[in-house]
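Q: I'm writing up a methods section and want to include an example of the input and output format. Could you take the sequence below and give the corresponding predicted structure tokens, formatted cleanly so I can copy it straight into the document?
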Amino acid sequence: MDVQFLQDNWMLVALAVVSGVMLLWSFVGARLSGIEQADPLQATRLFNDDALVLDVREDKEYAAGHIPRAKHIPLGQLAGRIKEIESHKDKPVLVTCRSGNRSAHACRILKKAGFTKVFNQAGGIIAWERANLPVTKK
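A: Here is the clean output for your methods example:
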């Protein structure tokens, strides 16, 4: 590798390194935290087995389209509204958001609150829609 290139383009190299680390963390981070990931196939199985689907996106995002039967509690309100879903503490809970980042945070909140079967929807509603799975606005 040309040292002069690295010196001349150090910001570009730094950007590439940082983005690589962020990409790696998005794959590894949730696994290290003990949160189980559900790809669209696993999410469909959970949905079909009547798992609670918890959508933690904001109101406008939810209104634009969500998984049928999803319970909507925005991430910022989850800790204060946890009692609404306490009956599911020992049942499967599939948590979704737009891309899987907010839902991973919500999964950690649920785990701390004693929920035992929490699944983060990998890729969020984006992955769900790409798999041509149903979305509703009702």
